[in-house]
Amino acid sequence: MPFDRAFALSSVLLAATAFSGLVLAQSVPLWLALPTASILIISLFHAGGLLFLRRAIAQITVSTTLWNILLIGAFVILLIDLTVVSRDLLSAGIHFLVVLLSIKLLTLQQRRDYRHLYAISLMAILASAALTTEAWYVPVFLLYLLTAVWTLLLYHLTQAKSEVPAVIAPSSTAVCHTIFPSRVTHGFFWLTNGIAILAITLTLVIFFLIPRIGAGVLQKTTGQAVRTTGFSDRVDLGTIGSVKQDPQVVMRVELPDQSAVGKDHFYLRGLAYDQYNGQSWSHSGTSRRSLNLVADGTFLARPFGHRPSDGLPETIRQDILLETLDTAVLFAAPFAELVSGEFSALQADAMGGLHLLSPPSSRIRYSVTSHIPQIAAGERTASILAYPDSIRAHYLQVPPGTQQVADLAHRVIQQGATPFDQTLAIQQHLLENYRYSLESATVTLDHPLEEFLFTRKTGYCEHYATAMVVMLRTVGIPARLVTGFLATEWNEYGGYFTVRQRDAHAWVEVYFPHSGWITMDPTPTNNAGFATSRWEPLSRLAESVWLQWDRLFVHYSAKDQLAVVHGVREGSDVVRERTGRWVSSFTVPIRQALGRLLHKVRMFHPGMWGLVMGVIVVGLSSLLLILRDRIGFWATTYFLSTSHPQIAIAQLYTRMLRIVEQQGVNKPPTATASEFARLVEREWKSAGPLVAEVTALYHQGRFSRTPLTPSDLSRAMEQLGRLQSLTHPAR
Amino acid sequence: MSSAHAIRAIQDNIALVIKGKTHVIERVVVCLLARGHLLLEDVPGVGKTTLAHSLARSLDCSFKRIQFTSDLLPSDIVGISMFNRQKQGFEFIPGPIFANVVLADEINRTTPKTQSSLLEAMSEAQISVDNQTHPLEQPFMVIATQNPAEYHGTFPLPESQLDRFLMRLCIGYPALEEERKVLDRPHSLHPAEMLEAVLSAHEVLALQAQVDQVHMEESLTDYLLAIVQATRQSELLSLGVSTRGALGLSKAARALAVVRGRDYCLPDDIKELAPIVLSHRVMLNRTHGMRTQSFEQAERMVLDIVETVPVPV
């Protein structure tokens, strides 16, 4: 493809990429996106060289005045948009930007227009960066970078071509065609892509080394919080059912020690309720205590002295990425012991619910270490349990008029000899005799519990859990209702649970004096739910990529950097110690020491590698900058195409011109090589012979029929090397 | 004798007579090798005729001199058909043009009719008289001289004829030291008469063939064309260089390469020869009220234009 066409094509592609960024950021309305997209497509075809289009467009010649009037019109519309329609500078500005883009695409004629197009594209890609933190931005941005590199290269190449004075007929491009191919060759293609990839790699490294704002700067914050249900002071029966169909993601839970837990379900406890008035659940105590900090950003959530003594404490760690919710409750597997995250304070209520001071305004990430409650073996078989008074006072309350429920409970527990067995019996009864259904609209009923147990016999988690709690309480077993999420959607690619709004759940905690609160769930598994499509694994994969993006990029914070720096410090200490020992004990076989060193190296903080790589890259880049000329020289000599000595000597000669130019002796474009050699002879005596020799070789290699021999080439290189080491006395 | 040797020898030989004008001599040889014709334009007495004479003497070729006057007739140049009684038919008596080197002295003193009789000879190297075509002997070179200082009783050469000269040269006054050498010479004999031929006609033809073999790289052709284009587009000139001019420059550049011992052209060859090869083929926009444009003026214009064309790297 000739450069001109490639240039036009890549310019339009650049604009297209930037525009798609804006569209994906959902900031371009459809009425504007469609015409712009069609203009883009037409421009693409036009630049790509569809002849009939070229001809058709060549016929549409609209005067520049009209375009200017259009521009002014667009600006007026922007003002109207700003003041009347959207009343938002950002969206109005983006609309204006898109209109500008379309107008520019239609009037691409001079190089100036292309420059305008680039400026608009840059603004568009920046605007879409500011508008989003989504992962789709990565491919768009990478594409943008790639096309930008292409466009810049082609811009300069075509520029060099058009700078040849007008006195030369277009056919005689003698100046440049011998060194630069005027078409996109294979080598050029790969070179350009290589440069782009290098730029992207460097960008990534810098990206990791520089802290950034965690969210889009201009990200709209209004209306972003997910409305949740069931995490306030009061829960009306039937409220959870309303969200059971909502697939909106609420949080993602990573389990770093995955093997410890089954992948089919995972309870995320929110709040517990102890008081039931026949229609709704509420808290009896509203007092909260602030949690103590045990380390930087880590809170101790375990109630004092509440650690069961027997058995191995089984703990599970969760890293939770919580979306913006309208509640201040934090979720965790029962029961949270340590909570760490970037919040200043954390409160716990009497029943183990974790509260932030206010609902977070953006997505937050926190880690929880939970202790999984397990019933002590002794309590499974104990027929009588002695409950403390405080427990009895709170967790045996039943609403008045529940005699019917009590009767049922007593009937159900007849076989059970121990409280544990009785509990299981009630759970079993509920599991077996009731049908799970979301259709039971019981909100308006006066006695939803009785309705569920005796009339409809269908319901969902709230009904099941309420029924179980009330039944347990009527037979004297303390219990409470817990709301939260039951995660069932395991993402095998990312190793985490995706928790959605529809995973909202209610279950039961039963009290055992030694074991504490034990989680029970009387709700049957809802298999009727959501048909898994063929694309499910794919969407899970995409989602895990998104999560990685969020963690690695969006939430890469100054703290992470500090960790990296700490890692370096520790690492360097280790290295120093190692080397010291290594030096002191020369008798130790080198292999052993190396092995140990290697081991230590492997133990480094992984983040340290990022920093080390960064330092290396920065160092290398500065070295490259300093040694630019040298490297240019090496590169010229190294990449000399020995298969084309004619091109090689021309490259060497150009290189020589640059060296001499840096010393202040410029070659006028209209001077011949020998004239220039004489000029150097006059202006810079010591370089004269070298330049003369290279010029002679250049003449022979460039213009004669017989190509230069490799030894001639190396002689030219040698002279260049000597020339490089000379300095013009006048400078 | 190798070509480099031969070229050296002829230059040295001429230099024995024409002192201190190595540059001019080189160009004369270039003109010879490029199969071109030479127009020497200078004030009287600087050695125009002597130069032509020396060149002719250095070659082992026939040499004729035609003194152009206002009453010279075409037949005085090309020859005439006369009735031969013995053969009972017309017989062509060749004129002085039938020689290897022809010196057309003061060519602007004769009438255009006579001047144009040179045309065919110069471009086609043949003469047509009475429907008979007589080829000229090779090598064939016309060296014309004219005096730019005098205008009375002259007929300026028409453009078509000027275009047929490969180059227009000016000899110029010699430097003081060189002039002294000229004066110190013994006067008994014309110096050109003492010269001995160093090159045979055969060798000249071989050298001319060698010129055709010289390699001109593609970008150099582009460069040459760019210069020609530039003269056509220049606002300083009302008439640019013809295709024959471009061809001539190409030939001359090749010949200069041979003279300088190369078998390939350099940008310098083209750039150096462009003024003398092109300047008599262009017409200036303003001639400052003069009937003819001056040599220096045109040369300077061409030089200026050449300096606007970038040299290929």
Describe it.
The complex is a heterodimer of chains A (731) and B (313). With 731 residues, chain A is an alpha+beta fold. Chain A contains 24 helices and 21 strands. Chain A has an eight-stranded antiparallel β-sheet with strand order 7-8-11-14-9-2-19-18, with helices on one face. In chain A, strands 3-17-20-21 form a four-stranded antiparallel β-sheet, covered by helices on one side. The longest helix of chain A has 27 residues, at 558-584. Chain A is elongated and about 115 Å long. Mean pLDDT of chain A is 75; it is low at 163-180 and 212-223. Chain B is α/β, with parallel strands linked by helices. Chain B has two domains: 1-205, 3-Layer(aba) Sandwich (Rossmann fold), CATH 3.40.50.300; 213-313, Helicase, Ruva Protein, domain 3. Chain B has 13 helices and 13 strands. Chain B has a five-stranded parallel β-sheet. In chain B, strands 2-11 form a two-stranded parallel ribbon. A two-stranded antiparallel ribbon of chain B has the order 4-5. In chain B, a hairpin with a 4-residue loop joins strand 4 and strand 5. The mean pLDDT of chain B is 83. At the A-B interface, helix 8, helix 21, helix 22 and helix 23 of A face helix 10 and helix 12 of B.
